[in-house]
From TrEMBL:
Organism classification: unclassified sequences, metagenomes, ecological metagenomes
Protein name: histidine kinase
TM helices/strands, residue ranges: 121-144
Endpoints of the signal sequence: none
Chief site of localization: membrane
UniProt KW keywords: Kinase, Membrane, Phosphoprotein, Transferase, Transmembrane, Transmembrane helix
E.C. number: 2.7.13.3
Length: 424
């Protein structure tokens, strides 16, 4: 219909209809399947050749507004059931019109076609629509799958690398062949987590080995003493010291086990804290008196620099355990000809306790980091069976439990400083 409308031209008030039947054979007499009729001012302007086969027959023409159309059921001149579309329009101005007359010629166009042909067109449209929908669904599915797979590839790659991780091996991290801005923070945090767990696993292995080593020596001594006593039951030299030797070895094993249990309790927050106000000067003097049986020269070697009225709010048991272990280590490992200095300074927000002792050789950076590890000893051969490397590990765990901080650093003249900070 729109094509036929474009063929109507208004040449300065003269209407022309430029129709070529060879391009629209359905309107020819040889194949009269469709019909059209044009009206101008209620008079027939043009008919299709197919309609001229039926003289005196006009297509329906009803009064409708300009630029409107209406579709009605209509029985075609050849007797077939069909439909007619009536359209009211303004004829197009020809290109050679030089002046605008202000008058527009209106035309009425009626096109009639059999219902069967229209149904075929509708079927074709429906089939095309259905096929388009199906193709669109599969096309969208394909595109979405490709886009999602491409977007999730970094996550899938990360997941596969995580599956292949083994924290029992060292230097296991997740590497990236290409950087994705959204994935890199996750990868970095995972690498930190993996590194931490690898360190914990290695520490666990070392701790298990060290515990076995610490317990193996007294157990071997017990076995040896028992075998000798069984072999020579009547030897007075053996029987005279047998029970005391067994007791001494058992006491050593008890000390190891008690310290391990204390380390476990401190690390698992099983200790209930009871905060109370303590006079730090009197508290440290009491600890010094308690250690006198282990270090008889403690009064001569320990130099205190602390105010008499200095008060702190802490858990008494935790602070007692921390300071006892620190003083015991400083007196035991410090050079005997040098003094052990304990200095306390207090600010508005913290109290700092600094304990210094002289060493024969300054500690390396690696030793300073490992000094608080459980069962770590500077003497790797563990020749001293009275020291087990648990004291400073207990100190570190109790400091973490109480929100204290402790660090070790080298000072001048081969002196080691252990600096304990208590929040006020």
């Amino acid at each position: 219909a729109n094509y036929l409308k474009t063929l109507v031209k208004d040449h300065a008030g003269k209407l022309e209809f430029d129709f070529a039947g060879e391009f629209m054979s359905e309107y020819e007499q040889a194949n009269p399947s469709e019909f059209y009729q044009l009206w101008h001012e209620q008079h027939t302007f043009e008919k299709s050749d197919s309609l001229q086969l039926y003289p005196g027959v006009d297509l329906p023409n009803i009064d409708i507004a300009i630029n409107e159309f209406r579709i009605i059921d209509y029985s075609l001149p050849n007797g077939e059931a069909g439909r007619a579309m009536i359209s009211h329009f303004i004829a197009q101005q020809a290109d050679d019109n030089t002046a605008d007359s202000g008058h527009f010629n209106t035309m009425v166009l009626t096109i009639a076609a059999p219902t069967a042909a229209l149904n075929k067109v509708l079927i074709i449209i429906d089939v095309v629509f259905v096929l388009t929908c199906i193709i669109a669904v599969f096309g969208v599915r394909y595109l979405v799958t490709r886009i999602v797979n491409r977007g999730l590839y970094p996550l899938n790659n990360l997941n596969e690398q995580i599956k292949q991780l083994d924290i029992t091996e060292t230097a296991q991290i997740i590497n990236s062949d290409f950087k994705v801005e959204e994935i890199e923070p996750i990868r970095n945090e995972l690498n930190k987590f993996i590194t931490t767990n690898q360190q914990l696993y290695q520490n666990e292995k070392r701790l298990t080995s060290d515990i076995a080593h610490e317990l193996k020596t007294p157990i071997a001594e017990l076995i040896s003493l028992s075998e000798v006593a069984l072999r020579y039951p009547n030897d007075e030299r053996i029987s005279a010291t047998y029970t005391s030797d067994i007791l001494a070895i058992s006491q050593r094993m008890k000390t190891i086990v008690n310290n391990l249990l204390l380390l476990q309790r401190a690390g698992s927050s099983a200790i209930e804290l009871t905060i109370e106000k303590l006079n730090l000067s009197a508290f440290i003097n009491n600890i010094s008196n308690e250690l006198q049986f282990k270090h008889p020269d403690i009064e001569q070697r320990l130099q205190l620099d602390i105010a008499e009225d200095l008060l702190v709010n802490v858990d008494k048991f935790c602070l007692h355990t921390i300071l006892s272990n620190l003083l015991d280590n400083a007196l035991f490992y410090g050079e005997r000809q040098h003094s052990v200095n304990l200095q306390v300074t207090q600010a508005s927000d913290k109290t700092i306790i600094t304990l210094c002792n002289a060493l024969a050789t300054p500690l390396s950076g690696q030793q300073l980091e490992a000094i608080f590890d459980p069962l770590y000893q500077l003497d790797s051969s563990r020749t001293n069976n009275q020291r087990h490397g648990l004291g400073l590990a207990i100190v570190k765990s109790l400091c973490n439990l109480n929100n204290f901080t402790i660090r070790a650093e080298n000072k001048a003249d081969s002196r080691l400083a252990l600096i304990l900070t208590l929040p006020n």
